[in-house]
From TrEMBL:
It comes from Desulfosporosinus acidiphilus (strain DSM 22704 / JCM 16185 / SJ4). SMART domains: POLIIIAc (SM00481). It comes from the Bacteria. GO terms for molecular function: 5'-3' DNA exonuclease activity; 5'-3' RNA exonuclease activity. PANTHER family: EXONUCLEASE (PTHR42924), POLYMERASE_HISTIDINOL PHOSPHATASE N-TERMINAL DOMAIN-CONTAINING PROTEIN (PTHR42924:SF3). This is Putative metal-dependent phosphoesterase, PHP family.
């Protein structure tokens, strides 16, 4: 069984539409797919309709940008039902805040000497979703692709601590995001812990409430050893271990369905979501 529990579409900062993602998942023989757009569940209903024709199980999801003790922490949420007014109202507020922050990032880039305009970023946004640094990064890449090409690594450096566009999002506390997901009938999972600036805070994150941990992830140096390490962490401190490609488009290093995600995690996820109803 092929599983991918971390996929983005054009509804946030992915480069493919929901339809294109589902068609691609079908060609890759994926059996279980979670759409986890940033601060948005807009693509879920379309994904479910399309998935019926491809015999793919869709697990509704979302990815939230949160703040824990001044550090940016990404949190995945998985659901049986995303119709909760509590969830949707809060997601709308978060999208507005994220877009406002993205606008400030563009202004910082301009002050730093980059020839980038807000309209360049808007061209990368394909929906009502939040504008994020992912959109800005693609705008920079496309703007400079012919005159003075910039590598993805150089572009990403603008947004890391010390970079000219590093503006951390501090308005959504990790604890509040966890509570939001639980109160909306979902299950929170700490995303890609190997990307945390202070990796040891993962133990504090998992102590707040019983939640899951994303273990089977590809965008890490020393991928094999980190997956082994976080599998042990999850076994001892988390409700379950999940994984996925964090797919944003064909330009990524990890393609959809590429990570080997054990079926045990999906089975536990189904059971926990059924209990939450």
């Amino acid at each position: 069984m092929r599983i991918d529990l971390h996929v983005h579409t054009l509804e946030s900062d992915g480069s493919l539409t929901v339809e294109e993602v589902l068609n691609l998942a079908h060609t890759q023989d994926i059996n279980v797919l979670a759409i986890t757009d940033h601060e948005s569940t807009e693509g879920i209903s379309r994904a479910k309709k399309l998935a019926k024709h491809h015999n793919i199980e869709i697990i509704p999801g979302v990815e939230l940008l949160t703040n824990f003790q001044g550090e940016e922490v990404h949190l995945l949420g998985y659901f049986k039902d995303i119709s909760s007014s509590l969830l949707q109202t809060r997601l709308s507020e978060l999208r507005y805040q994220r877009t406002t922050l993205a606008y400030e990032m563009v202004k910082s880039l301009q002050k730093g000497g980059l020839a980038i305009e807000w309209k360049d970023v808007e061209r990368e946004v394909g929906s009502v979703g939040a504008v994020s640094k992912g959109h800005i990064m693609r705008a920079i890449y496309n703007r400079y692709s012919e005159i003075n090409p910039k590598s993805w690594q150089d572009i990403a450096a603008y947004f890391r601590p010390g970079g000219i566009a590093y503006l951390p999002y501090l308005k959504h506390r990790f604890e509040d995001a966890v509570d939001l997901i639980f109160n909306a009938g979902g299950l929170p999972v700490v995303a890609h812990p190997g990307l945390l600036r202070q990796p040891n805070i993962v133990f504090d994150l998992l102590r707040y409430r019983p939640i899951g941990l994303e273990v089977y992830y590809g965008y890490w140096e020393q991928q094999r050893s980190l997956i082994s390490y976080y599998a042990k962490v999850a076994a001892q401190f988390a409700l379950l271990a999940t994984g996925g490609s964090d797919y944003h488009g064909p330009f990524g290093q990890i393609q959809i369905g590429q990570m080997d995600v054990p079926v045990d995690g999906v089975n536990k996820l189904r059971i926990l979501l059924d209990r939450s109803l």
